[in-house]
Design goal:
globular; about 350 residues; single chain; alpha/beta; 13 strands; seven-stranded parallel sheet
Length: about 350
């Protein structure tokens, strides 16, 4: 039995870690690191500990205010990246055989360095953060280059160069350098899984029953990029077509809820939980999902056994003055091509609102 450690910066990554524990890694001893990068993460970590689902749950503070990023901070970060740093609650005798993560940021490099010092045979692998992560470009920084140079100089392995496998729900779509390893699809009817997700992500708050047939997931491109693409206006058109009482809007975590409330639409509760989790808790297979460019719709449609009917409505928004939106349109549209290898039978592109009623 191997000790596996999954590094989770986001709730989606935690959901992947849970499915790994239930399937691919069920014979191993799995622990997780949860960082403070997601809102409410410390409370989620505490509730997760109470379930005894993982062997151990460690919490790591990684957030830093912009004004704290000075020369001293950078020197400390570089030192940690080269020689290692671990969560304060991790035992000194903990030995890891495999480290799995997605972001591979400075904090992850520090954790890797410390675990490598304890076990020179440490394996390192990556995992998905939704379909849009399958061909995500590798980012870098001056600090990371310093860390990599320092470790090479000292004859120690580097994290990114050690990655061998990529754990994902859709290995046929992956075209990267690592060897893809398939994670079985999530069964939203699994009562034990639903109980776990309820306890971990919502606590004592009940998952609110969704009576609406249509669920709209706007993105952030009215607020990010050069010019708005018209997502509020599109939400109003949906209300006019299907009826205000029959449309629920799940606002993006970085968006302003009041913008949609002021527009007169019904905004979804339980906004602190990731939509992928809510789809499992409520089983949205009988719902209709609509989005402009949200990768969440692709995630839901390709990680669950029971898939809701879904629509991408980017042709009905104006992307011409927003290069960020154009970029993600290019990424998402590639998955609809036959050569992508992805089964998108439940997802269609909305070119006219009348198609929703067909």
């Amino acid at each position: 039995m191997n000790n596996i450690l999954v590094y989770c910066n986001t709730y989606y990554q935690l959901l992947v870690a849970i499915q790994l524990r239930l399937t691919v890694k069920k014979a191993d001893c799995i622990s997780v690191i949860i960082t403070d990068q997601s809102r409410g993460a410390e409370a989620v970590a505490e509730r997760l500990r109470g379930t005894d689902f993982f062997h151990a749950v460690f919490f790591l503070k990684t957030k830093v205010a912009a004004e704290e990023v000075n020369a001293r901070y950078k020197m400390r970060s570089a030192w940690d990246g080269i020689f290692g740093m671990l969560p304060a609650d991790m035992p000194k005798d903990y030995i890891c055989h495999e480290l799995i993560g997605f972001n591979l940021d400075m904090a992850t490099h520090g954790v890797y360095a410390a675990l490598y010092a304890r076990n020179r045979n440490l394996q390192c692998n990556s995992m998905e953060e939704g379909l849009l992560s399958y061909d995500a470009p590798e980012n870098s920084s001056g600090l990371l280059r310093v860390v990599q140079w320092g470790r090479r100089l000292l004859g120690m392995k580097n994290l990114r160069q050690s990655i061998c496998k990529f754990y994902c729900f859709n290995p046929a779509v992956y075209t990267g350098k690592a060897t893809p390893v398939e994670i079985p699809k999530i069964d939203s009817k699994d009562q034990k899984l639903r109980k776990l997700l309820q306890e971990v992500f919502l606590g004592e708050e009940a998952a609110t029953s969704v009576t609406q047939t249509y669920i709209y997931l706007p993105c952030i491109y009215d607020m990010e990029g050069e010019a708005p693409i018209g997502e509020i206006a599109f939400a109003k058109k949906l209300c006019d077509l299907v009826g205000k009482e029959n449309l629920l809007v799940k606002v993006h975590p970085r968006d302003d809820l009041s913008r949609y409330k002021d527009a007169g639409v019904i905004v979804a509760p339980n906004s602190q939980a990731p939509f992928e989790v809510l789809c499992i808790l409520q089983n949205y297979s009988d719902k209709v999902l609509i989005t402009t460019l949200s990768g969440t719709v692709l995630n839901v449609s390709t990680m669950l056994l029971e898939q809701p009917r879904s629509w991408y409505a980017y042709p009905l928004c104006d992307l011409t003055e927003n290069t960020v939106a154009q970029h993600f349109y290019g990424v998402i549209s590639r998955y609809f091509r036959p050569e992508s290898g992805l089964n998108t039978a439940n997802i269609r592109v909305l070119t006219d609102l009348s198609q929703l009623k067909a």
